[in-house]
């Protein structure tokens, strides 16, 4: 549930404003809330100093809280076309369609937002238009990676280009805020194209229905599965509002291929089993999502028979293990087969985040003076800092939520300067 604040000369810039799902509000609480975000009180109590909000990409953990919190900020939002389309659809749902000033920016564009000069740099991730950015002030220039990986053969968009990041080495980058999600993983992340080939290999010999659970925001994975349906003679359908919304945004911004048809989910029940490929929501065991309804036999559009196959093409987010395994057991009770990543050597899911070799590569290109690992638990941040140190970054600063990283005129971490916490949101 990302919410980053950068401050200079009495002004603040927010980068990302996301949610998490089915999380407790405090570490020792047993009960969970359906939708959770970071408590914005620190900045909402001084919103006149908030110059703007920048959204790096359209994943829920980066944009999902903004429609619910914007009234507390009431400032312009800057993002690229695809993310803006996703955001506008969310704003309609909360009655803010015409109130929020959304400024659409492009790759390599620079925009003055208060005292901050923000420039957008394209990279690769598991969603259209993921962007890193530089944030320049008189006190120095920082580089915020957002979520990324080095994918030379993505399903959508151009392959990762190192040129813009090599150029940063000449710009005297003071600090680099870098994604730490896979910092404990050696090697290099796997391409989305490799995942597509693995899914094709699994689905091609199947004789019954195939259902795939994946994250609705992974448009590249949806396109890959659409191609698999074409190559295996199956009709392709989506079940779940978030999936249809995301594909609608992809169509509106030119990211959905014109030659990739979708059938209405209501037609699936009339099709031969061997001609059905459906993508559904609920890969994390969410109680109200489609996979749960399929497991309980209460999905209006589709019913599964023995020997049909359910593929989990998504990571198992820590904390969701029990809910996912309950789903698997329910399917087993119906003699419906399931396939998870741990069940096969084929990469039926790949991460959108960098492993250690990619981190080393980016640090060597950018050559920041300071590395500040973000986006991960303490062990991931420490692992990222170690990679930075081994990549000859002179200083590494590791902290926690609420710490203030002072980058100029001197360098230090001021612990627990901001009171942080979580609040529940209602959908």
UniProtKB/TrEMBL annotation:
It comes from the Bacteria. Keywords: Exonuclease, Hydrolase, Metal-binding, Nuclease, RNA-binding, Zinc. SUPFAM superfamilies: Metallo-hydrolase/oxidoreductase. It holds the Pfam family Lactamase_B_2. The keyword 4Fe-4S does not apply. The keyword Aminoacyl-tRNA synthetase does not apply. Residues 1-188 form the Metallo-beta-lactamase domain. Gene3D superfamilies: Metallo-hydrolase/oxidoreductase, Ribonuclease Z/Hydroxyacylglutathione hydrolase-like. Signal peptide: none annotated. SMART domains: Lactamase_B. This is Ribonuclease J. It comes from Marinomonas sargassi. The lineage of its organism: Bacteria, Pseudomonadati, Pseudomonadota, Gammaproteobacteria, Oceanospirillales.
